[in-house]
Amino acid sequence: MVEPGAGRWHNPNTVGRSEETEPMRDKSRDIGRQLLQIPGPTNVPERVLRAIARPTIDHRSPEFADLTRRILDGLKLIFKTSGAICIFPSSGTGAWEAALVNALAPGERVVMFETGYFAKLWREMAGRLGLQVDFIESTWGNGVDAGRIEALLADDRDKQIKAVCVVHNETSTGVASDVASVRRAIDGARHPALLMVDTVSSLASFDFRHDDWGIDVTVSCSQKGLMLPPGIGFNAVSAKALAAAKTTPNAPSYWSWEAALAALGGGGFPYTPPTNLLFGLAEAIAMIEDEGLENTFRRHARLGRATRAAVAAWGFDTVCRQHDCHSDSLTAVVMPEGVDADAFRQRVRARFNVALGNGLGKLAGRVFRIGHLGDINEPMLIGALSAIEMSLAGDGAAREGRGVTAAIEALADETSSVPAGSK
Ligand SMILES: Cc1ncc(COP(=O)(O)O)c(C=O)c1O
């Protein structure tokens, strides 16, 4: 099995497995919409698609500056910060890199925690950028253990560690960590390290608070909870992190916070921005405001609970091992011994045009992931769960075939307490 890091670079689509050919799709199944049930990129709502389809405008015009300012105001409510937010034309990986190259210098020490595949990828990036990583190893399926971070920081008497980097929602395992506890651990050890948090698959899906939780750099991107196509990365940055960035010897160029903030302050970008994606972002923010962010969180929590009810009724385990750490944005499902999760996923797609996420890294072939984040409602989830259940029938994998019923019951229990359209 090839793990991330076995070579210098790897292909995330095949990592852990040999290259394989997917079965040919039955074209007659193209009828109807594909249910995009991967944990990102997520469904892009019609409203956002229509906004993106507007003619591109001059990115140095007052109209564009107004758009940028509206977006920044909206993002502050979503990141829950009154501080600086940088917007980059990038994927989440770019936003990871921006965080590291602005605040840290090669040779400096950082602590990272192994929550799964994405924590490992971030560690590899840090290593390639010349940082010295204290990687706290842990079993995939568990969240961040703040006590272990506190112990490491308490041992660092010379304060050599410059940052602690954690993934809020580990998309490979469906585990959400308590990042507020990491801030308490840093403070408990009386340590000045910055706290950097990857919220790629949690932002706008479940609670995250940049300011209240004392985060120094929040990393995120467009294609998950924010319901946009891939292409925009974000760093929300504290005053302390901005001050650290001023002292790094090799100031970054494309990723420079200073350049980004100087330009964004005037409603512009230091280079050509992804104008049409920004139209889409303004619309996505308006949609989240219409629903009410806390209602968005409640919807994700409901969908998460319903999905877990189905998985339990099928008789499968989730990768998540800690009851209080289940992610509201995705569920990673462990297939029974001897059942190939990828072959199963491909059958679901070929038969029902439902796309499920693959197992990543050492979970490849053993796990499939159900995304339940972004522009998704109860009937969409039930549709996807039905496709899974119908594919399980006769597969030999299912021990029980009543997952959909269990999910509907879980939803029925809860929807009555949530008035439609309430904020
Ligand atoms: C938690 C997490 N971090 C980082 C990334 C990398 O983001 P991207 O693929 O947009 O570069 C992903 C991608 O899914 C992710 O889920």
List keywords for this structure.
alpha/beta; 423 residues; 14 strands; binds pyridoxal-5'-phosphate; Aspartate Aminotransferase, domain 2; disordered N terminus; Aspartate Aminotransferase, domain 1; disordered C terminus; 15% strand; globular
Topology:
Layout: E1 35-37, H1 46-52, H2 62-79, E2 84-89, H3 92-103, E3 109-113, H4 117-128, E4 132-136, H5 146-155, E5 161-167, E6 169-170, E7 175-176, H6 179-188, E8 194-198, E9 217-221, E10 232-237, H7 239-246, H8 257-265, H9 275-291, H10 293-314, E11 317-318, E12 330-334, H11 341-352, E13 354-358, E14 367-371, H12 378-392, H13 403-415
Parallel strand pairs: 1-13, 3-4, 3-5, 5-8, 8-9
Antiparallel strand pairs: 2-10, 6-7, 9-10, 11-12, 12-14, 13-14
Helix pairs in contact: 1-9, 2-9, 5-6, 9-10, 10-12, 10-13, 11-12, 12-13
The protein binds pyridoxal-5'-phosphate.
Question: Would you mind describing this structure in some detail?
Answer:
With 423 residues, this protein is α/β, with parallel strands linked by helices. It folds into two domains: 142 residues, Aspartate Aminotransferase, domain 1 (Alpha-Beta Complex), CATH 3.90.1150; 234 residues, Aspartate Aminotransferase, domain 2 (3-Layer(aba) Sandwich). The chain is 39% helix and 15% strand. The protein contains 13 helices and 14 strands. A seven-stranded mixed beta sheet has the order 2-10-9-8-5-3-4, sandwiched between helices. Strands 1-13-14-12-11 form a five-stranded mixed beta sheet, with helices on both faces. Strands 6-7 form a two-stranded antiparallel sheet. Strand 3, helix 4 and strand 4 form a beta-alpha-beta unit. The chain is globular. The chain starts with 34 loop residues before the first strand and ends in an 8-residue tail after the last helix.
